[in-house]
Amino acid sequence: MKIIADHNGRKLTNSNLKASDFYTLSKKLYFFLLAVLLPLANPSLPGNTILVDFINLAFVFLFAILFCIKKTPLGFPLLGPFLVIFLGSLIALFNSQALITSVFTIAQDLYLFMFFLLLYNLIDHRDDLKLLIALWIMVGVFEAILAVLNTYGHFSVGTSKVSEVEDFTRARATFGNSDAAASYLGVLFFLVFQPYFALKTFWRAVLGVIIFIGMQETKSMSALLGFTVGGFVVFFLYWLYAEGIKKLQLTISALLVVLCIFVIIIPKLMQAENFLDRMPRSANTRMEIWTAGYKSITEHPLGIGPGAFKKIGQGPFNNEGKRAELHSDYISHLVERGPLGFIGLLMLYGALVLLIVKQLGEANTNLEFLWASGLLGMMSFIVVDALNHEGMHYRHVWFAFALIAIQSKLMKCQDKITD
Question: Which of 99, 167, 200, 230 has the highest count of CB atoms within 10 angstroms of its CB?
Fold first, then answer.
């Protein structure tokens, strides 16, 4: 009987080669559908779902069966922090005056964590990661170009979930709102630092510029701040790591980028409609919302229930006459899920940062270090953007978490990246 081995060294015989081929083909199909459908917020389906959610559920059942057949050992990273958030959510649930909304929000949490675990356990070789990242970059660049066309071509894809009146000054590509599109493109930018398929520095720069322009057209000030912090983190870490002439080249490049920012980008932002002029109104609204959140904490220190603030909170109404969300992951976890929910969120962020720091310390090549720096830049973007938006319910944020955990797993398996 002919015997060969898979990526992990497990022996495969003729009797199970067909099953293995089906498993590999299923993964590739899932990666393609995930990359293409995740940004597609239209059509909006019942329960705030989109097409990719049904694809996820279908493949979860498929891969669960295949995992059982293959007797694949499963990993559960971030389970501790997630359980702390979950426990805080359950405690707050008993105090919720919007029980249906809170139960639905907890179900959404479970679904997103399941999505994270699915990706983590599916990807067991860097060829898998190479394919998934390549698909995401291709689709993401298309999203960035579409965001530019949204603004300058004055058209939109579907109907916004946030406003009944289309705002063509803020691009949203195929997403339901501009802030979600900005978050997606901000996360995507840091995938340009991936080392899994060869790209010359020039083409990495071209992709990065296209993605940045698309993000900028969303007019999200929070995303721009997160991008700035994340970009600085990547540059500073790699500058410290570099030696000799490379450090000098990085310094010159940084000076040119700063010059470009002050000469081209900042003047353009100053003149942009509905951007900086929106800041006073946005800041005042945030203060009203967060003040109402503080009042809620003093009255209900254990939380009012996940997702309940937009139903029963005392914050201001938005343009459609609905209660505004808390617009901050930190504040929403504290107000809605109580101290345990807030601590769990910090634990989750901290666990992810520690994974990346460990990757930085274990990097043996320039490519490994640059990729780990890019992951830390991506995490910095998410942490900063979370100050002004509730991004923990974004599917692409959990995709980013999965990338960090997967890279840590691959390094443990000695699946190294060579220069």
Answer: 230
Structure tokens of 3?
């015997």
Q: How many CB atoms lie within 10 A of CB 165?
A: 7
pLDDT in tens, the chain (419 residues): 444 455 555 554 555 556 678 888 999 999 999 999 999 988 778 888 999 999 999 999 988 888 887 788 899 999 999 999 999 999 999 888 889 999 999 999 999 999 999 999 999 888 999 999 999 999 999 999 999 998 877 666 655 554 444 566 788 999 988 999 999 999 999 999 998 888 888 889 999 999 999 999 998 999 999 999 999 999 999 999 888 888 888 888 888 888 887 777 777 766 666 666 677 777 788 888 888 888 889 888 999 999 988 887 666 655 554 667 888 999 999 999 999 999 999 999 999 999 999 999 999 888 899 999 999 999 999 999 999 999 999 999 999 999 999 999 998 876 556 55
CA 349/CA 110 separation, integer angstroms: 17
In a domain, 354, yes or no: yes
Residue 6 lies in a domain: no
Confirm if 212 and 227 have CB atoms less than 8 A apart.
yes
Beta carbons of 303 and 319 less than 8 angstroms apart = no
CB count in 10 Å sphere of residue 20: 16
For residue 350, the tally of other CB atoms under 10 A from its CB is 11
Question: Which of 175, 148, 195, 90 lies closest to 419 in space, CA to CA?
Answer: 195
pTM: 0.90
**3 is a domain residue:** no
Question: Is 419 a domain residue?
Answer: no
The string over 34-71, giving b where at least 16 C-beta atoms fall within 10 Å of a residue's C-beta and e elsewhere, is bbbbbbbbbeeeeeeebbbbebbeebbeebeebeeeee
Please give the residue range of the domain that contains residue 337: 18-412
Angle separating helix axes 14-37 and 51-70, nearest 10 degrees:
160
| Contact partners, residue 399, CB within 8 Å, separation at least 6 | 38, 115, 119, 136, 187
Torsion 361-366-371-373 (CA) sign = positive
